[in-house]
Amino acid sequence: MNIIVCIKQVPAKDAPLVIAGNWIKESDIGFEMNEPDSYALEEALRLKEKHGGEVIALSLGPERVKQTIKEALAKGADRGIHVSDGNFAQLDPLGSAKVLAAAISREKCDLVLTGLQSDDHGFGQTGVLLAGLLNLPHATIIMQIDVQDGKMKLKRELEAGWFQWIECPLPAVLSIQSGINKVRYATLKGIMAAKKKEIATVTKDSLGVIIEPTQKIEKIYVPMKTKKTEFLTGTPKEVAAKLVEKLKFEARVI
Amino acid sequence: MKILVVTEHRQGKWNNTSFETLVAAQQIAAATSGTVSAVVIGKGVASLADELAARDAAEILLVEHDLLDTYTPDGYAFALKQVVEAAKPDLVLFPHTYQVRDFAPKLAAMLGKGMVGDCIGFRNEGGRVVFVRQMFQGKTAADVTFTGTAPWFASFQSGAFRADLLAPHPSGKAPVKAAKVELKAQDIRTKPLELFKEAKSAVDLTQAPLIVAIGRGIKAPENIAQAEALAKAIGGELAASRPICDEGWLPMERQIGSSGQTVAPKLYLALGISGAIQHVVGMKGSRTVVAVNKDQNAPIFEVADYGVVADIFEIMPALTEELQKAR
């Protein structure tokens, strides 16, 4: 079973964000593998361990995303594909999906996995757009994958504690829900082995994709507060005392 | 602007976000001298369409087919593609539900479009509609506009608009029109099987008047005892944001947010929770919100009545002690 995992590199969780127009200043901050995608990668590795085949880590973005592909290789992916695009942050969801779809269609694969959404743009559309562009069946928010007789039985999460089993043929695109598995760490052996693994680089332009933006992020900004927050200051003990007093006599909730 | 709203229901019951999205559509229509039509899709859903017709809409499009009896992303995408092509709306709006996330981008892609998903509001700037959504897990907002030609696709997050503002139909009833769609069984490639709930949860957080919730800031499972002690001192239930349950540090039944429970307690004490939107939708109805986070820019403070910018490991024991004293 050959699996392509789409992995995005995003600003590190605790990175201080400095807004610059419709994106952030990228200098001076760290980047990391988008956490929801790490669950998709883990799921791909587990499927490979069970059913054989290869796992390809596919990432679109500037030169720096190679680091994230290397991390995927160190965890056990067999090879990487880097679609290089220095201006990646300006692509709309359809634009990135078209580029990824073009890269995927050059490979022979049974399954395409994505995380649920990215922690930066948070569009949460890539997997479903890929299914539309590649004309493949798909399912999202997946909590379990059982492969049997060339098809899959999937546990899909719905809202408010509900789930549903669905049957899905292969090939297909799945968006994986965070928490589906316990993500592994790269071992030293894995990191050494990754050095010998191949990362193919293709430029976005060489894929010959025609991109017509359907939306534009005009600007980003710190959101307006909806509530007036009263900040309590002092030593922990003072803050605790003030808070208990407020909750008792002002909010009257305890 | 001609607006089409795709409503959602499951097992004969409305998803309330549908009405919120209709309110959003009415407001956008009012700002752009437009009209609003609503789509009801499924099988045997004429009564739902009829019920919806009592609300303020130009018309209700009833899309019925045997193959739409239960939801499938292929069935919905193929059917709605035909509806959109025939109705030629400028803007197609959806409630931002798990189901919409599952099919709407595919529908948009089939029509060569993308989608502006998970919007929290809009602004009218001289006839140009600017959609507002969040980025970076709620740390920033973004103004987004459509480019290129219609139709455009957007979804509104649960709670972004007030369903109770949905006006009744001015003359009593909107016309219900059947919209014919052609579907073939082989178009639908996934097969939905049974719906189920996991083992019944032992704790019903929706009934808890006081909730102490922890997020990533708790750092390690062995630190949860401190939050438990605080919950005990205040007489409340312990809850968590999704990452804590994903890690298995607390059971899923204690998760608050879009994939967990939605609560509205008297007091919600958020400890080390950044306030990503998926969490906030599950607790923003709380009467009083207290947030403790060492990052003063954490979005959780946007919904907090009282805020403390500090290390939770300093505040938790101090607060536990004060609460015990106050008893």
Question: How would you describe the overall organization of this protein?
Answer:
The complex is a heterodimer of chains A (254) and B (327). By secondary structure, chain A is α/β, with parallel strands linked by helices. In chain A, 28% of the residues lie in helices and 30% in strands. Chain A folds into two domains: 205 residues, Rossmann fold; 32 residues, no CATH class. Chain A contains six helices and 15 strands. In chain A, the strands form three sheets. Chain A has a nine-stranded mixed beta sheet with strand order 11-10-9-12-8-1-6-7-13, sandwiched between helices. In chain A, strands 2-5 form a two-stranded antiparallel sheet. In chain A, a hairpin with a 4-residue loop joins strand 10 and strand 11. Chain A starts with a strand and ends with a helix. The mean pLDDT of chain A is 94. In chain B, helix 2 links the parallel strand 4 and strand 5. In chain B, helix 3 packs across helix 4. Chain B is elongated and about 65 Å long. At the A-B interface, helix 3, helix 4, strand 9, strand 11 and strand 14 of A face helix 3, helix 4, strand 7, strand 8 and strand 9 of B. Strand 14 of chain A pairs antiparallel with strand 9 of chain B, so a sheet runs across the interface.
Keyphrases for this structure?
heterodimer, A: 254 residues, Rossmann fold, 2 domains, 9-stranded mixed beta sheet, two-stranded antiparallel sheet, 6 helices, globular, B: alpha/beta, 5-stranded parallel beta sheet, 17 strands
**Would you tell me the overall average pLDDT of chain A?**
94
Global morphology of chain A: globular
Which of globular, elongated, flat, extended, rod-shaped describes the shape of chain B? elongated
Biggest beta sheet attributes of chain A? 9 strands, mixed
β-sheet strand percentage of chain B = 25-35%
